[in-house]
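Moderator note: this is an archived Q&A kept for reference. The question asked for a predicted structure of one protein chain; the sequence and the answer are reproduced below.
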Amino acid sequence: MKTKTYAAIPEEFAKLESAKVVLIPVPYEGTVGTGKGPEAFLKASENMGLYDVETNTEVYKQGVYLTDPVLDNSSPENMVKAVHEITKKYIKRNKFVTIFGGDHSVSIGTIRAFNETFDSLTVLQLDAHANLNKKHNGSAYNSACAAYEASQTTNLIQVGIRSLNAIETTVMDEEKMYFAHEMAVDDSWMDNAIDQMTDNVFITFDVSALDISIMPNSASPEPGGLFWYETLDFLKQVFAEKNVVGFDIMGFCPNENNTASDALVARLYNKMLSYKFKDEDVDDSYDNSYDNTFVNKNSNTKFENDDEDY
């Protein structure tokens, strides 16, 4: 029986030992419909051309290992714990770890793992929603809380925001929140946001960041979002100027009657990988060693380096 691989790539490029990339599907149904996101994304990836015209690369040849999906839905807390553990496991194996959800609450676990393993981490959140609630509906593990912990423990930069509540305005860092309506009339936002980033950057991408005209199948759609080429332009600059240590894509809510969004998320994932590895030869030496002496590099204190010259 043939092993299921990302984008149906040949098994020679999908082995854990040699793959540089790990893809973790998390079909967590915190928001109705998002549980079907990873499966629809993987199916669409199988129908996608894998050669990237812009970068002149076939990034899958770097190796992409597809894990079994994280299926723990016994409670939001247990889901976050499971995601945190598996993400950290593969980071420790020196993999470039990527996660596809699922409800955006999944990112609480992914961000926690990356923050514990990379110094002075910037979390770049592309999203329509601030998600800065400490609790929502009695839970700290709701999608509305997805960025709260990051706001307290990392250098959080939020891009494309156009929906938040009054309480979130007391938590947000106004200097590092880029509202969509301001971005629409001031194209300096890209350079400004990148200037605020530390060297190590983790990207959490909720598809609601994109305009509903190109991404109608978001769990929480909002008008007035980012368009395709400006999104790619920004991401390309971030990957070029910073050390992107991993990323997740969340909030995709597929609709079997409109599969255009499926194709978009499949291409978005491939684009982000292509930007990461565009200057790296396929046969570059790769250290796949497991670090048993790995220790936590970050304390859980508020990021305090806002005034540093990066």
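Archived answer notes: Residues 6-277 form a domain with the Arginase; Chain A fold (CATH 3.40.800.10).
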